[in-house]
Design a protein that fits this description.
- Four copies of one chain form a homotetramer.
- Chain A is mostly helical and 86 residues long.
- Chain A has one domain: Metal-sensitive repressor, helix protomer (Methane Monooxygenase Hydroxylase, Chain G, domain 1), CATH 1.20.58.1000.
- Chain A is 87% helix and 0% strand.
- The first copy, chain A, contains three helices and no strands.
- The longest helix of chain A is centred in the middle third of the chain and has 36 residues.
- The first copy, chain A, is elongated and about 55 Å long.
- The interface between A and B is large, with 39 and 39 residues.
């Protein structure tokens, strides 16, 4: 619950910053400032991803591994890791 | 103008997908599905960044370099590149 | 054993490509070609990381989680994930 | 010359660290330590990329843009940026 609320709070901050990116483009602001703001949003989402992954490993993956259901649980996490690394 | 509208269109799609991430967290959906959706938003923003950078290089950076004002223009672009690479 | 040999094989290919990057810089080759080659090495190392992570989750993390030693095992994996995402 | 030597120096350090990754795998060291070392190599290469890009923008791209040859020079840089962002 607590962790979910923390994640929701961060996601809403990221959405606020994404709204700001949209306004900056509409107002023709300086490209570098827009890029800086957009990269900040991506950094915030990536930080949220780390929180969600942490919870996922401690709960779902832990349960799956205890049941010996390694393969699927591991593959899903590796896929998330790979996607984040181009 | 055209390029700005294209960028705005993509940003609004990314915002729609970020709203979906928020809903998925509120609905306690499966962590891996949330992470997949969040990474998709980051990919869309990164794609927008490439478009903005492209325009920035063709316009502002081109102007600065023609005026011999290399240092600042180059440093700004390198900073954006660095931030995107952890 | 098999997985370790696969990882070693890929790492040696990456080292060969890194040697090529060094030669390209020494021979003053075109910057973009050097960058392309350097990014390929990073992609290969990141692919190796995914393989090592896969093995780590299936073995060490699985053992730790079975013993209820969640916290440390999870934190280490999240740290690796975070570092890969700037 | 100076910048080239700096780049070569950093690349050789990265190669030394990559050799260490290979040794660590051969010695069956702890996966997380191997991943940490591998990610350090990638960070070093990415830092070298930023240096090379900086020089490329100040020289080749500046020359191309002064000649009005924007399109190709810009596309090449955007491609490098994109590749680094998965």
């Amino acid at each position: 619950m607590d962790s979910r609320n923390g994640v929701l709070h961060r996601l809403k901050i990221a959405r606020g910053h994404l709204d700001k990116v949209i306004n900056m483009v509409q107002d023709d602001e300086y490209c570098i400032d827009i890029l800086t703001q957009s990269q900040a949003v991506q950094g915030q989402l990536s930080e949220v991803d780390a929180k969600i992954l942490e919870k996922h490993l401690s709960t779902c993956v832990a349960d799956a591994l205890k049941k010996g259901d390694n393969k699927n649980a591991v593959n899903e996490v590796v896929k998330v890791f790979r996607r984040g690394h181009g």
